[in-house]
What does this fold into?
Amino acid sequence: MRAVVQRVAEARVLVAGEVVGEIGPGLCVLLGIARDDEAADAERFAGRIARLRIFENEEGKFDRSVVDTGGSALVVSQFTLTANTAKGNRPSVTEAAEPEVAEHLYQEFCATLTALGVAVETGIFGARMRVELTNDGPVTIILGASGSE
It folds into this structure.
């Protein structure tokens, strides 16, 4: 499992020109699910992201999480995060989970975030989406790739 987590002032996702998910201050989470990922990975990842301290305290230090700030999360499934670009110029996404498995783990991830007290908005799994966001900071964290886990 891989995630790109961006602290945002606002974010939204559109499908066919219609807004299907929208948040104010919080996190935009692009989530890639690999074929060897399991429900425990989704739960652990959601917990890590909910507790990720990338919001400033009164002294301007990263000391608060999205839970602490009462922020929301816009979670968008993005299978291309599993891409391997080691050979050639065309990314291979053969490590992505099968859609049925990925959708189940995506839903598990979102449910866990919600259970941890984060208001969650989503895109539409498998749809062609347009993600619009205003990165706050900018602050962008990559989890689960290249030993960053």
